[in-house]
Amino acid sequence: MITLINQYVARLQSVLNDVDWSPVEVLAEALIEAVENKRQVFLCGNGGSAGNAIHLANDFLYGIEPNGRALNVEALSANSAVLTCLGNDIGYDNIYAHQLKVKANAKDILIVLSGSGNSPNIVNALEQANTLNMQSFAILGYSGGKAKALAQYPIHFNIDDMQISEDTQMIVGHMLMQHLASVLKKGCE
Prior knowledge:
Blueprint: H1 2-18, H2 22-37, E1 40-44, H3 48-63, E2 72-75, H4 80-90, H5 95-103, E3 109-114, H6 120-131, E4 135-140, H7 145-150, E5 153-156, H8 162-188
Parallel strand pairs: 1-2, 1-3, 3-4, 4-5
Helix pairs in contact: 2-8, 3-8, 5-6
């Protein structure tokens, strides 16, 4: 077991050391601007990434909340009634794009979380965000897939490992949460 642990830690450390962190800085500034201008932030993903989207939406709403200042954030993967209705009626590939079409405005933010970056519902969500003139970010693993080219700001961890890809989503999200909490707290003092 110890060999597996050491190998996992080494792969995670390696991918964290090799990433371009500049898009994370852009996302951090966009999120601060979203708070200040009351813009909405949407997150989505599939499987574990959907769970991570829900977790980060909670963190961004409640975890950074000093004196009532936090993000107006929604995980598009959170409402099972909406997801099953849309999946049944217009197809699973459109479950996120349709929600954005109805709820989002120009300059709102979309953050997609994906291991492969090739899931049709993620690709369609990014295409819809671009049509709406939203700011689009993607936290991706593997090659980054189609989402890497569609997102205005891809945050790409080049690792062929789904668990580490999902770990990087939470690492970036928690970095952002701590940054937002720090900046917004200073703004309230």
